[in-house]
Amino acid sequence: MKINQVSFGLTINMGNYESTRFDIQAELEDWEDPEQSIQLLKQKLTSIAKVELSNGYSSVLSKLNLEQKYISEIKTLARDIEAKQDELRELKAQLKALETLCSEANKLLKTYSEFNQKDSALKELKSIVYSYNALTKEVERVESKTEGSEF
Question: CA 57 to CA 49: how far, in whole Å?
Fold first, then answer.
């Protein structure tokens, strides 16, 4: 078997569920040793990966820091939302209590209105009774005068 081509790959875990992959490949001449060529590719790829990672390391770190900042902001916002939801539940409970009080106040106003109507009828009835009593007394006085003058 004749090997015409060799390749070497390197995957580096960047953390935060990210990785970077480096690959290198070479075609062999008839006189080249495949094992030595792989070792050479390994060295070359490792040095390329180190340079690339050192150049990109600060950008990767800043990206991770930015992601951490966003996660922190999201957690803060989630706590704020939860607090506002608690506040909303409390306001809804207060509104329900106020609605109950308003309903009871409306019932009292209705009862008061009915009472006023009945009270008005009672006042009119008292006035009629007073007038009746006054008329009865006047009739009795007139009758007593008439009885005394007939004899």
Answer: 11
Partners of 12 in the β-ladder? 20
The residue behind tokens 């809804």 is 92
Query: Token digits for 80?
Result: 């704020």
Q: Which two tokens stand for residue 43?
A: 């060295």
Q: Please state, in angstroms and rounded to a whole number, the distance separating the CA atoms of residues 133 and 140.
A: 10
- Give the closest residue to 88 by CA, choosing from 50, 80, 35: 80
* Secondary structure string (H, E, C) spanning 96-124: HHHHHHHHHHHHHHHHHHHHHHHHHHHHH
Query: Among candidates 4, 61, 11, 59, which has minimal Cα distance to 27?
Result: 4
pLDDT per residue as tens digits for the range 42-55: 888 888 877 777 66
For 19, residues 6+ apart whose C-beta sits below 8 A from its C-beta are: 11, 12, 13
pLDDT number for residue 69: 76
Q: How many Cα atoms within 13 Å fall on the side-chain side of residue 26? A: 17
DSSP code string of 52-68: HHHHHHHHHHHHHHHHH
